[in-house]
Amino acid sequence: MRRLAPRRQRVVDPARIPDAPPPIELSNRQSSIRLGRNRIELAVQAALALKPRRTGAVSIALVGDRAIRRLHFDHMGEDSATDVLSFPFAGAGGLLGEVVASADTAMREARARGVRPADELLLYVVHGVLHLLGFDDHAPAEQKKMRAAERRALEAVGIARDLFRSRG
């Protein structure tokens, strides 16, 4: 019987192993808009890739106007529904933060702007994730950067530029 030489183990360069994407927790507490989990995850991953040094798990909650109005009041003192709220956790416990988006607001805005409600809701999710990453949209120059980042992330899931036609 012939002895075989032991197989050489292949050594893998750790720099060549892609990092696992951060986990995304999704809570869908609305029934107005059908939006697949895979599409949400792809858009969130595309947004997160814009600032790869900021890492952590992201929680996404899709809710109705009543829930987001309550959060808006509790956390910002505004007694009104809004499109999206972001709550950064600054990496505490491995969490980047939470994004809460209103499907009811997305339905109204989509109808008014002539876009698909699912695309509008996905815009809110991406917008919220970008806020977690440090993007801002208060000053005109910052808003321009944020809109460009939104476009890049949404193009990754096949949303055309005309979604932004009438958005600031």
Summarize this structure as a short list of keywords or feature phrases.
Collagenase (Catalytic Domain); 168 residues; globular; alpha/beta
Topology (SSEs and partners):
Blueprint: E1 24-28, H1 37-48, E2 57-63, H2 65-76, E3 84-88, E4 95-102, H3 103-113, H4 117-132, H5 140-155
Parallel strand pairs: 1-2, 2-4
Antiparallel strand pairs: 3-4
Helix pairs in contact: 1-4, 1-5, 3-4, 4-5
Structural write-up:
This protein is α/β, with parallel strands linked by helices and 168 residues long. The chain has a single domain (22-156), classed as Collagenase (Catalytic Domain). Helix content is 40%, strand content 15%. The protein has helices at residues 37-48, 65-76, 103-113, 117-132, 140-155; strands at residues 24-28, 57-63, 84-88, 95-102. A four-stranded mixed sheet has the order 1-2-4-3. A hairpin with a 6-residue loop joins β3 (84-88) and β4. α1 packs parallel to α4 (117-132) and α1 (37-48) packs across α5 (140-155).
Uncertain segments: 4-17
Radius of gyration: 20 Å
Number of helices, where a helix is a run of at least 4 consecutive DSSP H or I residues: 5
CATH superfamily annotation: Metalloproteases ("zincins"), catalytic domain
| Straight-line N-to-C gap | 77 Å
Query: How many beta strands in the DSSP annotation?
Result: 4
Query: Any idea of the CATH class?
Result: Alpha Beta
The CATH topology annotation reads as Collagenase (Catalytic Domain)
When the domains are counted, the total is 1
Order of helices and strands: EHEHEEHHH
Strands ordered across the widest β-sheet? 1-2-4-3
**DSSP helix fraction:** 25-40%
